[in-house]
Amino acid sequence: MLAIKNATLIMKDHLIPGAVILCEDGKIVDFGKKLAIPEGCEVIDAEGQYVGPGFVDIHTHAAGPYWFYENPKVAGEIILEHGVTTVLPVVYFSMNKKDFIQATKDIQDAVAKGDLPNFGGFYMEGPYMNPKFGADRENNPWQAPCNPDDYMDIIRQGGKDVRVWALAPERENIEQFVIDCKKENPDVVFTVGHSEATPEDIEKLMPYGLKIGTHHTNATGTLEKYPECRTPCVDETVNYNREIYAELISDSMGIHVDPYNQRLIRKIKGQDRLILISDACVFDGPQPEGYEGVNDLCFDWAGEIAGSKLTLDVACRNFMVHTGASIVDVFNYASYNPARAVGYTDRGEIRRGAVADLVICDHQVNINKVILKGEIAK
């Protein structure tokens, strides 16, 4: 049994200072202010620091210098050090069919060997996005209409490991693609991303499980049906529909999402429909003029923004600065909400019976210790 004492527990809507939390067999078995520590426990003294649920990064391509498919073991270790106890590695639309399948298999093989213990499934960002949008879009090999002959092998390779399929709802024959994904894994969810879909396009897919907006306000188009009039598109549809979670990339300078927009989206989506993601990549294209001093973004070969160099602990810290959110708030956005969005009900919060994935951190979310399934991982 593992006991953490002198902890300030981060709950869903409050804090519990001076608490003890007990973990056994990979689960949280008890917690409280006046909890006795059984004899023989391994004891960690949190020294008054915060103890919260491990982060759930549902959307990241890489960690440090590695794409996940290149080196799943090291990438997983890097983000685990930053508190990510559940990760959904991304496979991206710029890959052709053969590479898409191989990247998926390489990560699955690493999981089978035990090299990626914080693996939580795949986030498939493609293959059917809008060719007008996204990083490295010049290399998009998926511009033809959705065709089962092209995509079924990819769906089968991912199988039930796929938690999320990101797509552009305006793509031709996309509904058949969605139906085929659901046949392979009935629990999979969908996101709208890299898209200029109408509200009608998006809402048509919501009964199938479209419930997330991929990196909200990034790589989306605005439809202009009338001169000088803004008409509703992806961002408005995500904001309007209560059921849809909004992913946000909160970099240090508010480049992906302006700080004012971060505050606006937080106000619109509320406490339980906002998700912080890292969207980390390793593109090393040229940094364009005007971005001097920016050190947590990536740029593709065309000099356009291509994901980030963030980890979720840093994203939490940035979001607190940009919006005034509390540490309780950001743990909801980086743990509880993403877990629920992709179907995990056993993690993302401190609760008896939940998976004992925990982090110990200071008031600025600097990670000092990580617990993975009840064992000290860092």
Tell me what you see in this structure.
The chain has helices at residues 72-81, 97-112, 148-158, 174-184, 199-205, 234-240, 259-269, 312-323, 327-341, and strands at 2-10, 15-24, 27-32, 42-45, 50-53, 55-60, 62-63, 66-67, 84-92, 122-125, 162-167, 189-192, 210-213, 245-249, 274-277, 297-299, 305-308, 358-361, 367-372, 375-376. By secondary structure, it is α/β, with parallel strands linked by helices. Helix content is 26%, strand content 26%. It is globular.
Helix content: 25-40%
Largest sheet: 8 strands, mixed
Mean pLDDT: 94
- Summarize the helix and strand pattern as letters: EEEEEEEEHEHEHEHEHEHEHEEEHHEEE
> How many DSSP H or I helices?
9
Determine the N-to-C terminus distance: 17 Å
Structural class: alpha/beta
Number of strands: 20
Radius of gyration: 20 Å
The coarse overall form would be globular
Keywords:
378 residues; eight-stranded parallel sheet; eight-stranded mixed sheet
List the helices and strands and how they pair.
Layout: E1 2-10, E2 15-24, E3 27-32, E4 42-45, E5 50-53, E6 55-60, E7 62-63, E8 66-67, H1 72-81, E9 84-92, H2 97-112, E10 122-125, H3 148-158, E11 162-167, H4 174-184, E12 189-192, H5 199-205, E13 210-213, H6 234-240, E14 245-249, H7 259-269, E15 274-277, E16 297-299, E17 305-308, H8 312-323, H9 327-341, E18 358-361, E19 367-372, E20 375-376
Parallel strand pairs: 1-4, 1-5, 6-9, 9-10, 10-11, 11-12, 12-13, 13-14, 14-15
Antiparallel strand pairs: 1-2, 2-3, 5-18, 7-8, 16-17, 18-19, 19-20
